[in-house]
Design brief:
36% of the residues lie in helices and 26% in strands. The protein is of the alpha/beta class. Strand 4 and strand 5 form a beta hairpin.
Length: 248
């Protein structure tokens, strides 16, 4: 069974139909990339997977999204967002210490034992390839970190509550090439234990790190296949045209 199944998903903002009949299966321990021009629905779809769109006035959603075979509408929203973590385009560390950024989620879910929190913080930072850089600075403000470090901190913060899935909405678009390479290496490592969905405008990034790619246009998925086929098969003409700038 797929980790996530999206069935006939449609989404309206008031009278505007932003998402049109999306059907998509996302496999466990794979990286699925969403590509396409700005405003085509990529970020809107990714935010439906942990019900972030529920917070938007005038947003109406139909269809079904299943997580491990269970409708996400039947999962408590706090439990859902624990299982489905989110990393945004711009790093958004909380204005508190590095330690407290990571411990925030576990504390919210009832973990207060210091020894247990210490282990979660260390393990999460190690998983995010950040521990060696900040292990002697845990009580210092997270806002003092570089942009790339802040984004890895945000990934560590998402990992601290032990999710099944990581959603990443253009996680490297605000970063320099060196930081981008570190994040991409991290994503490939995390795939061993997590299912990852990434929105990206970078065709080369999708080609480097994703297993499957979905090409969005005007609120629909136009093409979906393994990334290798999407970028090499003449059958995927729409993707070729987008890569060549006709939709960019």
């Amino acid at each position: 069974m797929s980790k996530i199944q999206i069935k006939n998903l449609e989404l309206y903002y008031d009278d505007f139909k932003a998402i049109k009949g999306i059907n998509l299966d996302i496999e466990e321990n794979e990286i699925t990339a969403f590509i396409g021009p700005s405003g085509c629905g990529k970020s809107t779809v990714i935010k439906t997977l942990n019900r972030m769109n529920d917070l938007i006035d005038g947003c109406k959603i139909s269809g079904e999204i299943l997580l491990d075979g269970q409708s996400i509408n039947n999962i408590d929203v706090n439990d859902l967002r624990k299982r489905v973590g989110m990393v945004f385009q711009k790093p958004n560390p909380f204005p508190m210490s590095i330690y407290d950024n990571i411990a925030y989620g576990p504390r919210t879910h009832g973990i207060h034992n210091k020894r247990e929190l210490d282990k979660i913080v260390e393990d999460s930072l190690k998983k995010a390839f950040l521990w060696d850089e900040v292990s002697d600075k845990l009580k210092k403000s997270a806002l003092a970190l570089s942009g790339g470090q802040q984004q890895r901190l945000c990934i560590a913060r998402a990992l601290a509550v032990n999710p099944d899935i990581l959603l990443m909405d253009e996680p490297t678009s605000a970063l320099d090439p060196i930081s981008t390479k570190r994040i991409e290496d991290l994503i490939l490592e995390l795939k061993k234990n997590y299912t990852i969905v990434i929105v990206t405008h970078s065709m080369s990034q999708a080609k480097r790190i994703s297993d499957k790619t979905a090409f969005f246009l005007l609120g629909e998925i136009i093409e979906y296949d393994t990334t290798e086929k999407m970028f090499t098969s003449p059958a995927h003409q729409r993707t070729y045209e987008y890569i060549n700038g006709q939709f960019g």
